[in-house]
Amino acid sequence: MTETVESLFDSGIQRYQAGEDPEILIPLFKEVCDRSPKSSSSWTCLAWLYLLTDRSKLALKAAQKAVKLNPEDPQARVNLSVAMLETGQKGVREHIELTQQIMMAVKELRDEVAENIEDGLKRRPDWKSLQRVQNWLFE
To answer: Which of 33, 47, 48, 137 is 20 to 30 A from 117 via CA?
Structure first.
């Protein structure tokens, strides 16, 4: 029996939260994105995993898809901003400003982004691009 896209996604999130290596989770999230290409949350997760494994170009493409599918998702914009910094792209400020506006409007999203950034810095402590984004968003 094949797993549903939702159960695959949920399983991937649980495994990530349990501390599983992002490298191992990438194929799972690629499959979820292939099977459900309009799922912005799946693309957001895949971009995050690529960023954690230092694959900035792949992260940029996944984050661009996530933002295109859901422009109001602050985590997708955080991922896009980090990927843009890591690949030397211009236009990061626009995404940071939009993320700040969204986070000001919805406190739960602000808390979620803050938690995700903290998690990212625990998994990749010297992550300069993420530290810059964190400073811009939370100073």
So the answer is: 33
CA atoms within 13 A on the CB side of 27: 1
Which domain does 59 fall in, by range?
5-138
pLDDT digits 0-9 by tens, 56-76? 999 999 999 999 999 999 999
**Do 70 and 40 meet the contact criterion of CB atoms below 8 Å apart?**
yes
Radius of gyration, CA atoms only, the chain: 14
Specify the length of the chain in residues: 139
Quote helix, strand, coil % in the chain, to nearest 5.
80, 0, 20
Contact 21, 57 (CB under 8 A): no
Main-chain phi, psi angles of 63, to 5 degrees: -65, -35
Could you read off the pLDDT of 96-139 as tens digits, one per residue? 999 999 999 999 999 999 999 999 999 999 999 999 999 999 98
10 Å CB burial of residue 43 (0-12, 13-18, 19+) is buried
Counting the structural domains of the chain, the total is 1
> What whole-number distance in Å separates Cα of residue 135 and Cα of residue 139?
5
